[in-house]
Design goal:
Elements lengths: L19 E4 L2 E4 L5 E2 L14 E2 L5 E2 L5 E3 L17 E2 L3 E2 L6 E7 L3 E6 L3 E3 L1
Antiparallel strand pairs: 1-2, 2-3, 4-5, 6-7, 6-11, 8-9, 9-10
């Protein structure tokens, strides 16, 4: 059993990794090799990530959005058309700029960029 619990786990201030260890009074990140003194860095406060749509409205989990341009989908013969409503979105840190996880009717689950949707 590990003596480090999720409540006391220190995240790296440089890369955010949870894979850290103590070495000679310093805390070291095993992912990026950043070293810091626990006294130098205040406890990390989880900052809420702000995701905005194509016109600048702030998006939140559970919002309904509308697609603002035709989107080609790999492996599909048709595109997601302008005006398609997507309900109950979930904000994630996806691959690249894809920060919305959703289910589009007729296409299934996928990730979208916030720059191609507008809050409904």
């Amino acid at each position: 059993m590990s003596d480090t619990t999720p409540e006391t786990q220190v995240h790296c201030p440089e890369c955010g990794s949870e894979h850290t260890y103590e070495l000679g009074g310093l805390t070291v990140c095993s992912m990026c090799a950043f070293e810091w003194s626990p006294d130098d860095v205040a406890p990390a406060v989880e900052q809420a990530r702000v995701v905005k749509d194509s016109v600048g409205n702030v998006l939140a989990d559970g919002d309904t959005v509308v697609v603002v341009k035709d989107l080609k989908v790999k492996g599909q013969a048709t595109a997601i058309k302008v005006g398609t409503k997507v309900r109950n979105i979930r904000l994630v840190e996806g691959v690249g700029d894809h920060d919305i996880d959703c289910k589009v009717d007729g296409f299934g689950p996928m990730q979208l960029k916030s720059s191609v949707v507008k809050k409904a």
